[in-house]
Predict the structure.
Amino acid sequence: MSLAADDRRYLWHPFTQQRGWEAEEPLVVAEADGCWLIDEDGRRYIDGVSSLWCTVHGHRHPILDLAVKDQLDRVAHTTLLGLTHAPAVDLARELIAIAPDGLTRVFYSDSGSAAVEIALKMAFQYWQQQGGPNARRTRFVSLENAYHGDTLGSVSVGGIDVFHSAYRPLLFDGWRVPAGDAAAMERVLAEHGEEVAAVIVEPLVQGAAGMAMQPPGYLRSVRELCNHNDVLLICDEVATGFGRTGRMFACEHEGISPDLMCLGKGITAGYLPLAATLTCERVYEGFLGEHEELRTFFHGHTYTGNPLACAAGLASLQLFEQERTLEQLQPKVRMLANLLKPIGELPAVADVRQRGFMCGIELAGFPAEARIGHQVTLEARARGVVVRPLGDVVVLMPPLAIPERELRTLVEVVRDSIEAAVSAHAAASTPLAA
Ligand SMILES: Cc1ncc(COP(=O)(O)O)c(C=O)c1O
């Protein structure tokens, strides 16, 4: 039996219509090298989406490999429930050193969804424990088209109907406002502010919405509105964190600090599952008390703060310094913008959006059943590039460390692939001449 056959027989893939999956030949990744994925037959593909927005310094980076191997020689897993260990402490200290001012505490988990779930529960419980009129602060304000993960709390503050509508009966209510519209946020907080525990946003870029960008100044206005209404601000930097927007965290572009910040994906540079919810001293202190007061934060996943993952995270932060990753990124961000220009001129392309290394190419004018975004990925794969679309938006999010030559190849291949997919669609929809 081939791996592909066993995959079809035993696996159920995430966010995948299995009927379509079973009809296609899967790409079986056997290994990776730098910014390349390599299949079973030795064919190489540029990892154009950083293995789902995670890889930062490239695959199999010797420093990251060594950090994980070294930790493996000490202990692979222990627990933060009742014990502690160096990688968790060291990484927490380093995260706080680079986080926006005012964030002072790190609570680990193992996925972006969990990091969001934790932020929501912390904000909720914080206000409950304040008591008095503040105990009425039980709801959240979130943005339309938000994506914060797949657990029920994070889906409750999500706003992408195709993903979320099936679960509506299971979700808690809140208020949802259009992203980028500070006046709408102001209105909802003016009307309901005293019932709001927190506002949650993806700062600057709503990734899963198709790389939707917020106007400059919006995040700062949201911060000010939260201050004005004494509402906590949760910034979900799971996608934007660790350099993707060109700065270490998206919040830095607007010089703001959230009260809670969610991190995941790039935190281990794409090596191991780890996430973190950072919070300020005010929230942390709201949980202090005697045991019997039950102000404890009753939350913790089994693999919380796993040592191997924390060791990878720590090594990644060292690499950011050593390889001056963010400095090296700046000319590549400009280069990417230039490379994208001709793509923006293609007739099938309605919009090209870019912030740092987060970029979405929106195709328009195709029926949903054409799955044009997916067709582009198949064309790209045949040309040695892996990308994954969000509907009809082709996403590019290469590893920060991608060399300029590979970046150029990536964008050129994507342009050719869009042209090829559009031509194939046109040919298939043109009736044959009589
Ligand atoms: C902004 C944001 N938050 C949360 C998540 C969920 O992260 P995970 O898939 O690790 O649960 C994602 C995933 O894409 C995301 O983009």
In short: The first strand starts at residue 29 and ends at 33. The pocket of pyridoxal-5'-phosphate is lined by residues 111-113, 116, 147-149, 202, 207-208, 236, 238-239, 264 (CB under 6 Å).
